[in-house]
Design brief:
Layout: E1 2-7, E2 12-16, E3 20-24, E4 38-39, E5 61-63, E6 75-80, E7 86-87, E8 95-100, H1 108-123, E9 127-131, H2 137-140, E10 143-145, H3 171-181, E11 185-190, H4 192-208, E12 213-218, H5 234-253, E13 258-264, H6 271-280, E14 285-287, H7 301-312, E15 314-320, H8 346-361, E16 367-371, H9 374-378, H10 384-402, E17 408-413, E18 416-421, H11 437-446, H12 454-464, H13 477-483
Parallel strand pairs: 3-6, 8-9, 8-11, 11-12, 12-17, 13-15, 13-16, 14-15
Antiparallel strand pairs: 1-2, 2-3, 4-7, 5-6, 6-18, 9-10, 17-18
Helix pairs in contact: 1-10, 3-4, 5-6
Length: 484
């Protein structure tokens, strides 16, 4: 399969004879020699007796980019997720733990439930602990014993039964706790900051030579994790955002010069705002962090609003929380416990600016309603699509950890679940490309101005660089939905 390889602290780059590069994840055997292996219990599991092929082939990979140019190389592949024929833990010796960190997101309880049930029903694992209260729970809080009975109906609730927190990452204390408790499978659910922490925990475990697998499940409601097709909770968030947009639309169209402003999540990436706008068809203007906008002058937001109000008598604006931060009077340098920059409330700021422009300067009567459903959306249970997706993520993580892989995160890459090195999902956030077809579809749907001059578009394309194997900027999410 391979011709050469080069190692880094977190992954291996293996040049394969077929012309592609396998960006592999660490394995326990990389730093612990002579580890025994055991038959995978799945081969005797009646639920899997109908499956033609129980196990994933050793050489199975998933390509990162599926649209290739005629003369382009085959590019980067990841190791395919799934059960292996041999495992590196006996069921009786496994002591697993699960921790959730960062903000709330629909689907957290589903992931917890399916890790527990996957360990119990597929691998006969009986010792699973929930770490209460995020990373600091490893050394400052009680643990929660988890069984299929305990987690049976938690997927119907929002939030996380384990509790969560930001910050509290003391690597030495966390690994001490893992070692003292005899834990050998660690499942960490969280966003980019959490995955960075998981990577550091893995490195310390590796330094100590412990037989402990560390698996991450990437979580962000904003869908800003790179490489993977989408993050869990995103579908639910878009669906739930429709309720807020519909309320804004009803309020706006019921009054003279009615304006509904709906603020949605999206610190650095406007995917929720973009997809909710496209799904709704009631939105007149969508403002996201990736697309700078301005208020006054030709082609500005106020000019567009005046035109739309004269045409329709009402309008709805969707704005992501990270949009327009450069326009606010004061910049904030503070950060939260996770290291995220604290943002000012752009929704209230925009509402005040609109009121000032139309009532004081233009002497127009307007009726403005501002809706912020952020925490209502974060707190709902996941929908059917996300529930299925969370199950696949959880089972992929369980299969990988039992097979001895460690220092990895899981996720679908072009529709196939894969094991991905931690750093690949934390290096650069996934963002909407405003010179991409999906954003063009939104502009065509709303008929809003792009707020970009021809010069801006040229500069944007220069930043993107030349075409690569994948049609750059296409997240492929829209194409996948169509193909399914």
């Amino acid at each position: 399969m391979t011709t050469s390889s080069s190692s880094s602290s977190s992954s291996d780059f293996i040049c394969c004879e077929n012309g592609y590069v396998l960006e592999d994840v660490p394995h326990l055997t990389d730093y612990i020699s002579d580890l025994p292996t055991y038959p995978n219990p799945l081969q005797d599991n009646p639920a899997y007796s109908v499956v033609k092929q129980y196990f994933v082939n050793v050489d199975d990979t998933v390509c990162q980019k599926i649209v290739v140019h005629k003369d382009s190389p085959r590019g980067v592949h990841f190791r395919r997720a799934g059960p292996r024929q041999r495992v590196y833990f006996e069921s009786d010796e496994v002591h697993a733990c699960i921790v959730t960190c960062g903000g709330l997101c629909p689907g957290l309880n589903t992931v917890i439930r399916e890790i527990v049930c996957g360990l119990y029903h597929m691998y006969d694992v009986r010792k699973v602990l929930g770490i209460d209260g995020g990373y600091r729970g490893f050394y400052s809080r009680n643990t929660i014993p988890l069984t299929p009975k305990v987690v049976n109906d938690i997927h119907k609730r929002g939030g996380t039964i384990l509790g969560t927190s930001r910050g509290g990452h003391d690597t030495s204390k966390i690994v001490d706790s893992i070692q003292d408790r005899g834990i050998n499978l660690v499942f960490i659910i969280g966003g980019d900051g959490t995955q960075k922490g998981a990577s550091v925990i893995f490195e310390e475990i590796k330094r100590r030579g412990l037989k402990v697998s560390v698996a991450g499940i990437p979580k962000t409601i904003d869908n800003d994790i790179p490489v993977i097709d989408r993050s869990f909770g995103f579908d639910t968030a878009v669906e739930e955002a429709q309720r807020a947009i519909n309320a804004g639309h009803v309020e706006a169209e019921s009054q003279e010069n009615g304006i509904g402003i709906v603020k949605l999540m999206g610190r650095y990436s406007g995917f929720i705002a973009m997809y909710a706008t496209l799904a709704s068809r009631d939105v007149d203007c969508c403002l996201i962090p990736e697309s700078p906008f301005y208020l006054e002058g030709a082609g500005g937001l106020f000019e567009f609003m005046e035109k739309r109000l004269k045409e329709n008598g009402h309008m709805v604006i969707v704005i992501a929380e990270g949009a327009g931060q450069d326009l606010l009077a004061k910049s904030m340098d503070q950060q939260d416990a996770s290291g995220n920059k604290l943002l000012q409330d752009v929704g209230h700021w925009l509402s005040d600016k609109i009121k000032d422009h139309f009532t004081r300067q233009r002497k127009m009567v307007i009726n403005l309603k501002y809706i912020d459903p952020t925490y209502m959306i974060r707190a709902v249970p996941s929908n059917a699509s996300d529930n299925v997706y969370c199950t696949l993520l959880a089972h992929s993580a369980v299969h990988g950890a039992m097979a001895g892989y460690t220092g990895f995160t899981v996720g679908p890459v072009n529709g196939r679940h894969a094991y991905i090195p931690f750093y690949r999902v934390t290096e650069v956030p996934n963002k909407v490309v405003i010179t991409d077809r999906m954003w063009a579809r939104l502009l065509a749907s709303t008929n809003q101005p792009s707020f970009l001059s021809p010069k801006d578009i040229i500069e944007e394309k220069k930043v993107e660089g030349p075409p690569t194997q994948l049609l750059d900027g296409e997240n492929c999410m829209d194409d996948k939905l169509v193909s399914k």
